[in-house]
Amino acid sequence: MAREINLNHLCKIEGHANLTLKIEHDKVERCELKAMEGARFFEALVVNKNLSDIQEIVSRICGICSSAHSVAAIQALEHALQMQPTPQQRSIRELLMLGERIRSHATHLYFLSLPDYLNASSALSLASKHKDKVNDALALITLGNRIVEAFGGREMHPFLKIKEEMPRTEFSGLLGQLRDAKPILARAIDLFANLPYPQLERTVDYLALKEKKEYTTISGRATSHTGNFSEEDYGKHLQENIREYATAKFVVKDGKPYMLGALARINLNHGQLGTEAKNALTKSLGTLKTSLPFSNPHHNLLCQAIELLEATNRSIEIIEHLPARQDLPQIRIREGKGVAAVEAPRGTLFHEYHIDKTGKITYCNIITPTAQNLNIIERDIAQVVDGLLQAGTSKEEIVRQVEKLIRAFDPCFSCSTHFLQVTWL
Amino acid sequence: MKKPRLKIGVFGISGCAGCLLSVLFEDCFKQIVRLVDIKAFPMIKEEGYEGDFDYVFIEGTVCFDEDIMALNALRKRAKKVVALGSCACTGGVPSIKNFLDQEKVMKLVYPAHNHLKTEPPTPIDQHIKVDYYLPQCPPDKQEIVEFIKCIAQGREFKPYRDPVCFECRRKGNVCLLTKNEICLGPITNGGCNALCPSHGVTCYGCRGACKDANIKAYLAMLKEMGYTDAAMHDKMNTFAGLQFKEQEGDASKWLEK
């Protein structure tokens, strides 16, 4: 008997999405994850614009990862102009990304995912019984905001203009706030290492930027368990497919689904974590009775919690050793093409621009992390639902489990435009 | 007897979730939870509430038919509708598309398929009645809190109506127009404390067209500075092109390309 499961207007995710599952003989025949966002056509909006206006526009793709879109755009434009950023500019950009990562992970962990595990419908209802956790969340969000604000002029949609300069202020206050966050970070890791995560084991390829010496955010080779490539070769490996049912584009790597984000980064780059985060990871693996690499997508939550600590420590390290001010390179407008990849909170983000000799954009292509994760999310949902159907699980419980799984990936449907409504027939 | 708290809904149509996030940030969230009763907020809350609202806050730009259906449904359930952020108030960045060749745009982003249902990207008041506007991209948390305080305490909310230049001058910033940059400060609503120019970045018009602005005189000045119509309009269509276009009154110039 064929039936269909439709989850319409999934909540507690960023953006709007529906999920449709076609089920025949207790097996998922088709799983369609559908962004319910109108297409906003960013790649076309920047064509013919001046390169100096681009960051201001593409930053608006996403309120949650506006730093990532800003930094990716600026670095791609620099590549097109054959310019190198100064060490100070690199520090500013990394701090914008780290602050944003802290804020984004904290919002996802406590406001979107945690209620699933505490039998609460929302963080609002957590406020009475788990006030301490809501306060920790707000404190971490504030911390992230302060970093982005200090180096980008405001907490969202930072100012970044290829010629960005370090503000001439003191950062001792911010350093104090970062150091004071240690107890909150320890509680966060403890909390997310001890949640009763559903079992789900599978093998899939992971992708993240990698540098030899650091847990990278703004540079590196795109690296997976099957090989690596430099950012400008993304087009040779990543293919965007458009599906009739979705405004989002579905991306495969060398023809196959793969996973991005905190879990992928920890799997590929745990060796580059700072000592404190490394120790916290080792301890958490013991608590969860698992080992690296992580293969359960639900463990993405723990990986984000570890990254909260790493991002805080890395921010302290950068601010304590800020490079000296130096003259910025002159911008010389020339014709060219440039690609840049950065590690946004949800994974590797690619921006490509072509510029003509007057400094106008002639082509833009953007591949967002969620668009790259959609294939594996669909595949994992099908696997989970197959198992639940065989176990004779109730409809309500299947929906609950599917939503939990989708949230674990921390999808962002504004970015992908390009996501979930589930309909039971 | 204590008055019951106002019933609030916080929703988004096609957008970047930045405004919704602003509501969650720090003090803003604490204050709002204290002052009003959030009955629905799909980004962070399961949808269980089916009743009416005193105030509904809406983020985003109308980009496809589902957005219009969502707006109509929300309008019916809300005593007052508040447009939150530049997209809802003026169309925001997605509204740039109104000034481009539609077919080229579609081909560029979705080359092989033409299965997408789209609507011209428009602010929400082109589809439903809007009672209050809280513009800016991202919206100012202080302003959101002030608005919530006003409605919770039954005070009148007074929107800021002077151009960005007023606050900019008061802060003693060097005028970016004198550096020969296109700054939209003279024709844009202030209330942002001249945030962008204070960081050496020109105003992009994210709080919308200032009602008393003399756009014709402003454009004549830019022309004297050596800028082409195309360059001026390119800048003006970043956040509030539809409003500037309406106020300038000379629509033909905007339809080139």
Order of helices and strands of chain A: EEEHHHHHHHHEEEHEEEHHHEEEHHH
The strand count of chain A comes to 12
Terminal-residue CA separation of chain A: 12 Å
Give Rg of chain B in angstroms: 19 Å
Quickly name the level 1 CATH class of chain A.
Mainly Alpha
CATH architecture of chain A: Orthogonal Bundle
CATH architecture descriptor name of the largest domain in chain B? 3-Layer(aba) Sandwich
CATH class of the largest domain in chain B: Alpha Beta
Domain count of chain B, please report it. Answer: 2
Structure description:
The complex is a heterodimer of chains A (425) and B (257). Chain A is α+β, with helices and mostly antiparallel strands and 425 residues long. Chain A has one domain (54-354, 361-368): Cytochrome-c3 Hydrogenase, chain B (Orthogonal Bundle), CATH 1.10.645. In chain A, 45% of the residues lie in helices and 17% in strands. Chain A has helices spanning 42-45, 54-58, 66-80, 87-117, 123-129, 131-152, 172-180, 182-193, 234-237, 262-269, 275-288, 300-320, 369-390, 395-408, 413-416; strands at 2-7, 17-24, 27-35, 205-210, 221-224, 227-229, 238-242, 249-253, 258-259, 336-344, 347-355, 361-367. In chain A, strands 6-5-4-9 form a 4-stranded mixed beta sheet. In chain A, strands 1-2-3 form a 3-stranded antiparallel beta sheet, covered by helices on one side. In chain A, strands 10-11-12 form a 3-stranded antiparallel beta sheet. In chain A, helix 4 (87-117) runs antiparallel to helix 6 and helix 5 (123-129) crosses helix 6 (131-152). Chain B has 257 residues and is α/β, with parallel strands linked by helices. Chain B folds into 2 domains: 7-153, NADH:ubiquinone oxidoreductase-like, 20kDa subunit (Rossmann fold); 164-248, no CATH class. Chain B is built from 11 helices and 5 strands; from the N terminus they run βααββαβααβαααααα. Chain B has a 5-stranded parallel beta sheet with strand order 2-1-3-4-5. The radius of gyration of chain B is 19 Å and the shape is globular. Classes of the chains: A alpha+beta (425), B alpha/beta (257).
